[in-house]
Amino acid sequence: MHRRHPSFRSRALLACVPVLGLVLMASAGTASAAHAPANSRAELRTALEHLLSHWRHTNHATAVPRIDLKQVQSTNWSGYADTGRGVSSVTGKWTEPTVTGCSTNGAPTAVVFWVGIDGFGNNTVEQGGTGAICGSGTPLTYFTWWEMFPTNAVQAVGVTVRPGDHIAASVVRSGTSYKIKVTDSTTAGNSFSTTQSCSTCANGSAEWIGERPSFTTGLSTLPKFSTWTLSSATVKIGSTSGTIKTFSDNEITMINNRTQKKVLAQPSALNSTGNSFKDVWKASS
After folding, report:
1. Beta bridge partners of 20
2. pLDDT for 187-206, tens place per residue?
3. Whole-angstrom distance, CA of residue 248 vs CA of residue 218
4. What pTM was computed for the model?
5. Which architecture characterizes domain 31-281 according to CATH?
6. CA angle, 278 as apex, 272 and 283 as ends, to 5°?
7. Fewer beta carbons below 10 Å: N end or C end of the chain?
8. What residue ranges do the domains of the chain occupy?
9. Alpha carbons 275 and 244: distance in angstroms, whole number
10. Angle CA(137)–CA(127)–CA(168) in degrees, nearest 5?
11. What confidence tens digit (pLDDT) does each residue in 73-91 have?
């Protein structure tokens, strides 16, 4: 989501912490919201838009040297990123995790799961996915969303996503045209497909990420989520199509800050095929 991309230094793993700071994520409803009448959904969307107005442009790159240059740390990303020139497609599937420990009375709290092109070491993003947000009196709400940056901010789509929903997401580029698609095959109304244009996008990386956003008051605490299992990952860079491990891949661990380096979320190793991993919640802050 809306954020600045990290810079990388030779031989010093540099945090690939994201991307242009999260800005507007869609929100999809909890089980109760999914069965709410239309007027209640409208009220929920209004409350969500209020929460989303607090997202801000951020830069949380962290330079943390480690032995393996392909293992990097970030203050708001956890997952994998491939790098290479001419990325033209990225796909992935998952079952929406269950989120807990989300207070409705305090500051906004959120976590999002997505696939996308760019964001790892550059300043553009083209992405789509799901997430959960709550706070300031708004109940825990699950959602689908997409974002192009700097073309536009995050766009909310579905507000009736529920834990356990089967999700498929993809971003496919053709020249300067990007087709972002998220399908919720379990709950109708959350799926979408949008085609956007960007003539300045870098097309230099592909990502499969769990992320905590930043608000005007700073990075969100990371609500506890059941293990996010990303599967069926594919990517095309140049004329080569493959899985995450086909290309130069970076395993990204989320930490709380540069000083303490407490692990908040951590991806597993890739499976033997290189198209799946598990992202495990470790701590909130």
Report:
1. 3
2. 989 999 999 999 999 999 99
3. 31
4. 0.84
5. Sandwich (2.60)
6. 150
7. C
8. 31-281
9. 6
10. 90
11. 999 999 999 999 999 999 9
